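Pinned message: reference record for Tetratricopeptide repeat-containing protein
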Amino acid sequence: MASVKASTPAALLVLTLLSGCAGVLPVKQTESGPKVVESGPAEEETQADPAESSGGVFLPQQAYDAEGKKIPYVPAPNPYTEQPAPVPPAAQAAFADAMALMEDGDLRMARKGFWAMTKDFPELSGPWVKLAELAEQRKKPEKAREYYQKALEVNPANVNAYLKQAVFERRQGEFARARDAYLAALKTWNDFPEAHLNLAILYDLYMNRPEEAQPHYEAYDFLTGGSDPKVADWLIEIRRRTGIETSFIDNPPPEPEVPAEQGAEGEAVSADATGGGSPETEEQG
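Predicted structure (tokens):
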């Protein structure tokens, strides 16, 4: 995220939106925080190519040491929030003004403000994301698609722009494009919890592909430490539907096998011990 310090909640919100760091989360909602993307799992018939990738290569994996103990998983950092480039104060002010116009319903002037920012601050992707949102409101999906693409050209690490793009495509009924946007976000950041969750819901709710949804529900649950009981319930429900109980993420190593000869010797000794005495006792008798 941008390294400029914000002294007030309003200033922090401007920085967050400007740099595109506002995530699309499925949990608690606040003015500057997470927002629900999808509503929850259900079944709906949609034709899809079963050979298409589910993005399984992007799943986290629980590792174990030589003794079979879990190695604590350390998620990769968000590459977008790790970017150190500061946001100029003039850009913060311009963005705040355009956002205020947008919130007041003056979409024409808001659009002009964001357009001016793309000229004055071409290194920022946030204005392009807002232009895409405005284009969708104006019923211009092709323009919205163009502006989301431009935002990602300006900053390919803007994982939140991928999420917003995916939600837009889902609303357009373009489920394959939405899936591709989520997968692009995960390619950029494998450990993006919200991308995993929203991809899972897209597969499950909109594409009727629960087998491909299940790994990503599990990935979200794993990356968030099982903190969302609703998702835990969804996991239980989808496992009933798919019949897949084996974890896609946490598979402990098998117990070491006892060599066959050693096992046979143990059985022979055990038989002798229960047969009325040791061989030495029998010889002495």
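Pinned by admin. Summary line: The longest strand covers residues 63-64.
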